[in-house]
Design brief:
single chain, 76 residues, 5 strands
Length: 76
């Protein structure tokens, strides 16, 4: 997607995995079960390499408290 860092609160993650394909599959299942939910993104945590699924609306451009830097890898 882009190389810009965005910040997410790890506690807001819908799901997470160390495997991108597994995280993407979880995101697809979540989106299929909740089609009215907002746009979701798969983001890689810059510190530990873990992939997490978040609502895109939860992204922040600057760290606020407990936010961790991520790079968005995919969106649904």
């Amino acid at each position: 997607m882009n190389n810009e860092s965005v910040f997410f609160n790890p506690g807001d993650a819908i799901a997470s995995s160390h495997d991108f394909k597994e995280a993407r599959r979880s995101a697809q299942i979540f989106k299929a079960e909740k089609p009215t939910a907002g746009k979701i993104v798969i983001a890689e945590n810059d510190k530990n390499g873990e992939f997490a699924i978040y609502y895109a609306s939860d992204a922040k451009s600057t760290p606020l408290g407990v936010g961790a830097p991520h790079h968005i890898k995919d969106s649904l």
